[in-house]
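#struct-pred
JK: can someone run the complex with iron/sulfur cluster? inputs below
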Amino acid sequence: MLAPRPLREYNSILKNSSRVDVLFGYCYPSTYRAGMTGLALQILYSALNSRDDTSCERYFRHQTQSPALSVESNRPLRDNHIIGFTLTYEEDILNLIQMLVIGKIPVLAEDRTDNDPIVIIGGPVVSSNPEPYVDFVDAFVIGEGDLVIHNIIDIVKATDSRYGSIAALAEMDGLYVPTTKPSSVSHITIPDLDALEYPVAQVIPDVEEGSKLEPVFGKSFLLEVTRGCGHSCKFCLVGHICQPRRTRSLERLQDLVKQGIEQTPVNKVSLIGSSLGDLDRLEELVCWMVAKGVDVSVPSLRADSISKDLLDCLVKSGQRTLTIAPETGSSKLRKSMGKGLTDSDIEMAVKTAESVGYNSLKLYFIIGLPGETEEDIHSTVKMIQNIAKNSTMKITASVNPFVPKARTRWELEPQLELDALRTTLRNIEDQLKNVPRLTIETLDPRSARIQAALSIGNRSLGKVIRTAATYGGYGGWRRAEKETGISLLSLASDPERFSKGIPWAYLK
Ligand code: SF4
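RT: done, structure tokens with the ligand placed:
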């Protein structure tokens, strides 16, 4: 079924709103392109619309007619009984608030009445630490949303007031209703991925290749292979909050690919999951798809899990860029963060990629790590220089500041001050500026500071967030700090930041 103009899509679903009991607005607080790249949208959209009693329509902050009108039918945002956001990146909270404002929904949860939708937020950001956002939200999903989405609809359908629904949601495992102030909230995870419903008819925009509306991985069928990660690098959120690692069986994955390619009009499969190379039968899965004439794309692979046969198959399927994350050139720091990669693992991965025909390499590094010295930074520069010297591939090195994340083993570590981050990044760029075929990408240190503050902050940040949303951009955060008297940009290095306790201590 096609959505109404101007956005044409395959597999979008339009129901008669007057013939269902529950209207759900799925909101992504960023661009259409970013939202359509995420698996959460496909999973929730499909699960909700599989019910005869529910209509789910989508809303995006940017690139659609209006953030307050659905892509499917221009249904006004505030006409929904529930609006559910996925918050993937901390800074998108400003977009989220702007969507509420434009949709004429009171921004503060305490100002909402029985005529307003219930506002729910899920996603990795709030599963790690929901506290900075409590002012704006009626309920948070802590953990994996596909486990509770049907119960949420059943509750809202069965209760006759908004307040009754929220009170009933507060009783559910994995739901956090801030007004109830529970002593603990459990994080929910699905034990068996094979038993789970999976969206095989995925929504795909009908746009030209290279269009600004095209999802980041291109027009492809998203195949979730694993959830969680078998490693737990001390800085990494996935390695901590998505435990244990779960994997779909090869048989189930092959079945999903067959159905997916039949029901989604694409000939490319993007594999989704962390540290996929650890999967016993990844090579078999990839080579099976390649033999069927399907293009395959994989996200980053651990350097120690790469085999020549796997990369051979990926090259045949059209992949030409290998992405690996050494994190740092210092083997001492790699060891202390629990990454478990050696220099020779990384060298071998690069050599293998080049030998089978890859033509570009993407490398991820972090600076400002706990315990980092000048020498460690120098090791990162050296590693990039050596890789460039010993290969003919194009190289993109993405060098980003360390962001302490709640619920990781490095949650209490401070972040480097803004000036120190800037100086370190500038020095690295200076030392690498003459390396041929190398592009350096960096995250703006101001963004890293905002992300860190929102990752580890408490509910006092609500005021700053709300004020920043009225202005937007970095300037907005600065003005909000001044107007509220609450410092946000310096929070992640403030020695007093946990003097009132750990804000997310109640999450179990
Ligand atoms: S950094 Fe990669 S390997 Fe380490 S825990 Fe995170 S996803 Fe797993």
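RT: quick notes.
Residues 229, 231-233, 236, 238-239, 274-275, 302 surround iron/sulfur cluster (CB under 6 Å).
The domain at 9-180 is CATH 3.40.50 (Rossmann fold).
JK: thanks, will look after standup
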